[in-house]
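S1.2 Input.
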Amino acid sequence: MILQDFHTHQSNLDESSGYSLAGSFTRDLIASKVWLLTELARIAPQVGIIYVLGSWYGNLGVLLALDPIIKYKKLINVETNKKFLQASKRIHNYLGTGNIEYMLADANTLDYRQLGLDGVVINTSLTDMEGQAWFDNIPKGTLVVMQSRDHDPGNAAHSTQDIVDRYPLTEIIYNGKLELEDPETEYTRYMVIGVK
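S1.3 Output.
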């Protein structure tokens, strides 16, 4: 599979960074999303609705279009930047990806009305996201995937323990770290998957 092959060959990863489309597809950022999808597929290979908070250019949906290791009913890209959402929609339309919704919204204001019992909430932007309402509003019993990184000036969630302390779960199914490198520094990305 495409994702597993990429995950296996992630040595010497680097990034050209920036908030551009090209910057969103750098090797380290893609590696972190491949890692996420690989671990999530082991836990829940078939889900209902997926909310992707701070979706940027919709890269998770792109990776799932290229290698659908997780079956889902609908993926909802939630983003505060209209230009990112528009670019995401163009990319998915080009790929012929169906069942994707684009929501221009602050993640902290979501009510997750479409979620359902078999839904998943994914937040790979913990260090960039202000507030905690995005997590507080998630219904109990929901599967949640969270990623953070060290060497980041944003909100301090610089270990899996920091993530768990800030966003308490009733069950932790997976926690781990991935060593990556961008042009400025080596860094560690942390991930926790569990049930709220």
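S1.4 Remarks. The chain has seven helices and seven strands.
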